[in-house]
Amino acid sequence: MSENKQMAYPASVDSTPTSANQEDHVSMACHDARRLLAMSENLFTIIGIETLVAAQGIECRSPLKTSPLLQSVMEYLRKDITTLKADRYMVVDLEKVHVLVSGGHLLSILPKTIFPQLELK
């Protein structure tokens, strides 16, 4: 998260003067777009970690149940990523959950009324 906070500084405040300051303001939009892509990847990782932690926490409270909707998300998640029962190397788990989050797979099993999805045409 801290990395994203640092990258959130607007590039437009650091315009590069051109033609002896006679040209239009340089927007630096390309630089900002590349930075936004990196921030998005970081966000997918953060959401993935939060998802794993939430699932683990819910499972620790067993035999208590969660909502049917959240249970369906957990079942989908646990098809690929097993419950953490002992200390283990988690890079593979983090890579898998990153794919589930960034690819929209977890959102795809939820009703669109809960998380409306942008349809690109």
From TrEMBL:
Region annotated Disordered, chain positions: 1-25
Keywords annotated in UniProt: Lyase
GO MF annotation list: ammonia-lyase activity
InterPro entries, per the entry: Aromatic_Lyase (IPR001106), L-Aspartase-like (IPR008948)
Gene3D superfamilies, A to Z: Fumarase/aspartase (Central domain) (1.20.200.10)
Full protein name: Histidine ammonia-lyase
Organism field: Bartonella melophagi K-2C
